[in-house]
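#data-curation
PF: Archiving a pair of folding outputs for the training set. Convention for this channel: one message per protein, sequence first, C-alpha cells after, nothing in between. First:
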Amino acid sequence: MMPRRHQAAARLFIAGALWLCATQTHAAAHYQLEKVVELSRHGIRPPTPDNRKDIEAATHRHWTTWVTRDGELTGHGYAAVVNKGRWEGEHYRQLGLLTAGCPQPQDIYVRASPLQRTQATALALVDGAFPGCGVAIHRVKEENDPLFQTEAFPATNTEPATQLAAVQAKAGDLAARQQALQPAVSALKAAVCAPGTDCSFFDKPWQIKQSKSGKTYVEGLSVLANMVETLRLGWNENLPLSQLAWGKITTAAQITEILPLLTANYDLSNDVLYTAQKRGSILLNAMLQGVDHPPASMPDTRWLLLVAHDTNIAMVRTLMGFSWTLPGYTRGNIPPGSSLVFERWRDTQSGERFIHVFFQGQSLDDLRHLQSVDQAHPLLREEWRQADCRITDVGTLCPMKSAIKTLSKHLDPSAITSVSYP
C-alpha cells in the first residue's frame, strides 16, 4: 500500500492537474479561435549580390562566401523555419483551429513571394506544421507579385519628390542622428575593418540621396545596415566564428550592440509613413479583410499564410502604428522567420468577435543553435493593443470593429487594387 504522505502528494498532484486542465478548458470554452492571418519573413539567407558588392567596396575586404548562393534560403534556415512551423501546427491543433493529420482545402492557403528564399521558407513552414502532407505553395507566374513587390507597379509606387520630402522630414537633423549612433558605428567598424585598411567610409557624413529610379536612401547608413544584417544572418546561420567578422564577433550581445544601425535604416526607409501608405496599403488591407470578412476573390481558409520579406512587414506595421522590441533585439527588428499575426477569436457566450495581433520570432541564439520551439524556449512575442482591449487567458483580445477601424486609418485607398489568388 502507498504510504499516506505519498497518497496525499498524489492527491495534490491530481488536483493540480485537474485545476490546470479545467482552467485551460474554461479559456478554450469561453473563447474560440476562428481564423489566423500570418505574414512571415523568409528565413536565413546569405547577403544578396548587390549588398555583398556594397559592403565589400566599403570595407575593402572579401566577406565570407556561404555554401548557399547569395540571397537564397540556407539549409540551416530551412531547419529553423521547420521548428517554428512545427510548433505553430501543434499550437493551432491544441486551440482547435486545425484537426489532426493532413489539412483539408478549407484549413490553410499559402501564398509566397516569387523569390527562392520565400518559396523555400513557405515549404519549410508547412513541412513543420503538416509533415509529409505536400501542402501546396501558391505564387504568381510573373516575376513580381502585386501583393509584395509593390515598387514594380505604378499604382503602388511612390512619387519621387514626395518620397524625398517625406524622408527628409522624418530624418530631421541627420548629423545628430549619425552622432547618436556612433557607439554602434564604432563597434561595427572595430569588427569589420582590417588594420591598415582604408575605413574612411565609416566616418563620412550621411546624406539623403535618390536613385534614378526614384528610390530614396541614406547614403552611408544603408550600407552600414547591410553589414549589420549580414553579420546577424551569419550569426543565425551558425557560421564558424572565424568566418564571422574574421573572429571578432563571438557573442550574441555583440550583434545586439550593432543592431541600432538596422533600426535607424528602417526608420528612414520602409518605416516612412508615405512610403508605407503607397507600398503597404494593399497588403495590410488584404490581411484585415482576411481576418474579418474575406471577399469572394480571397481564399476563406482557417489559416491564411503569406510569406514575404522584412520590407513588407515593416511597411504594414508602420501603417498599423505598431512597433516592438523583442529581448536581445532593438526596436522594430524583424528576425529571419519571424511573423506578424492576426487572429480572430469569438466569445462563445456573447458571440462578440475579437482580434489578437502580435509579432513573434526566435532569439538570436535559438536560431543559431536550431533550438526547437517549446515551453522552455517559446517564441518571443509582443502584442498590439489599444484602450478597449481585454487581457484574457488566450492573449490580449481587442474588439474587432474598433480595432479594424484603428488599424486601417492610414490606408491609402488609391494604392489598393484588386488582387487575384492563384
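PF: Second:
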Amino acid sequence: MTAGGSGAGPTAKWRIFTGLPAGLKALIGLSFVVALGSYMVTPFIGVLMVEAVGMDIRVAGVLVAVATFIQFGGSILGGAVVDRLGLKRTMVGALALRTAGLVLLGLAVKVPWAAYPAVVLVAAGPALYLPANKAYIVTSVSDELRPLFLGVSSAALNAGMGLGPLLAALLIDADPVVLLIGLAALFALITAAHQAALKPVARRPAAPVAGPGTEAAGAGARTGKRAALRGALRPVLFTGLAFYLFFFFQSFMGLYAVGVSDIRLLGWVMLLNCAMVVVLQPVLADRIARADYRRLVVVSFALMALGTAAMALGGTPALLGGTALFTLGEVFLFLRCDLELVDRVPDSPAFAFGVQRLTAGIGGLLAGVVGGFVFAHYEAAGDLGGFWLVVAAQCAGAALLALLLGGRRRAAAAGPPLPEASSAGRAVVR
C-alpha cells in the first residue's frame, strides 16, 4: 500500500494518481474545464455589461463588485448546503446555477433587465461549487496525500484560469449572444459529466456530542465548528492578508501594464503567473505541507514584497521577474493556507473552504477600494511605480506580522477512516 505522497518522485506520484477511483480523476480533469469555461466570461463581464447590454459604466462597476463578493463571500454558505445536499449534489446544483446564469446573460443582450439575475447566478455557481470541489478531494484521499492532491487540483484550476481568457480573446469579435449561449451549452455538458462521473462520498464522521436527541447533536456540531474556527484565527488572518495582497496584483496589473507598456504584456504576466502555479504547486506540495508554518508564511510574504518592489521598476523584464517572485510566494502561501484551515476544521472541509473564500471576498473588496484610491493618486502624480512600492510595504508588513504571530501548525486529530471507494483506490481513498 502507498503510505503517502511525501518524498515521492514524479513517477511515483503519477502511479498514485492513476490508482485513484475514476470519479476522483474525472473531477480533477473537470476542474480544469470548469475554470476554462468560467474564465472565458468572468474577466469580461464588465465589458459585456457596457458594450453588449448597454449598461451605464457606473452601474456595471457596482454590479461586478457585488458579483465578485457573492462569488467569494457566498462560499460561506457552502458548508450548510453540503450538509443538506451532499458534496456531489452541491457541485451539480452549482453548475446548473451557472448554466442558467449564462443563458440569462445571453438573453440580456436583447432584454437588459435579465443582466441582474444573470450576474448573480453566474457568481453564485462558483460560490457553492469550489468549496464542495475541494472538500470532495480532501474527503476522498488520505491525510498523507491531501497536500499533493490539493496542489494538483489547484494546478488544474489555474491552468483553466490561464487559458480561458486567451481562448476568449480569440472569440472576442464573435456575436456575444452566440458566445454566451455556447458557453451555457458547455456548462450543461459539464453538469451532466459531474452527474455521471462522480460517486457520492461519505462525510467525515462528526465528533461525538454529549446529550440525547437530534437537537442536542446539531447544537453540538455547530458549537464544534465555532470552536474549531476560533482555533483557526491565525490561518484565517493570513489567508485574508494573502488574498488582499493578491488582488492588488490581479486587479491592477492590467492598468499598470497599459500605463508602462501595452495590454499585451498583461497576457504574458498572467500566463507566467498561472504556469508557475500549475508546474510548481504539485511538485512542491509535500515540502510545503512539512515546512515550519511560521517560516513559510514569513518567506512567502517576503517574496511577495520583493516581487512587487521589482514591478515598481517598470519595463517588461522587471514585470516578469517581479511576477515570478510574487507567484513563488503565492505558490507556498495559498496551498498552506488551505491545509491549515482543513487541519483545524477536520469534520467539515466544505465549511473550512467556505471560510477561506469568504476571507478572499473580503480581501478582494478591500484591495479594490484601497487600491483604487492609491492607484488613482500615483497615476495623477505620474509615478505608477509608487503604487507597487505601497503594495510591497504592505507585503513586508504582513511578513513582520507573521513573524510575530505565526505560531506553529497544529496536527489535526485523526478520525476513523471512511469506507474505501474501490479496491483500485485502497492506497489512497478513505
